[in-house]
Amino acid sequence: MAVATGAAAAQRPAQRGTKVAVVILREDKLNALIGSIQAVDGTAMALPVDVTDHDAVGLRRRKNRRRRPSLF
Q1: N or C: which end of the chain has fewer CB within 10 A?
Q2: How many CA atoms does the CB half-sphere of 25 hold within 13 Å?
């Protein structure tokens, strides 16, 4: 799995076969990036969260821990 900042940084590892988790608040941008990664046969998981909201990030982290075995 890759952690990247920015759309291009997320697309590069996905094009090489790395699974990518995408964290973006705006759902339209999130869906567009996920779609562009999947269009090149990449694997990406959408994680909508406001990274400036400490509580929201903590909640997302807890949810992901529960589903980690089936992330991809």
Answers
A1: C
A2: 6
> What distances in angstroms separate CA 35 from CA 14, 28, 30, 46, 61, one per listed residue?
12, 11, 9, 10, 23
Residue 19 in tokens:
């699974």
The answer to whether the predicted template modeling score (pTM) of the entire model surpasses 0.85 is no
Q: Where in 2-47 does DSSP place strands (E)? A: 20-23, 44-47
Q: How far is C-alpha 39 from the chain's CA centre?
A: 15
pLDDT digits (tens, 9 = 90+) for 40-68: 888 888 888 888 898 988 888 787 776 65
- The structure tokens 């567009």 sit at 32
Residue 67: the pLDDT is: 63
Helix count (H) and strand count (E) of the chain?
A: 3, 2
Residue labelled with tokens 């959408």: 46
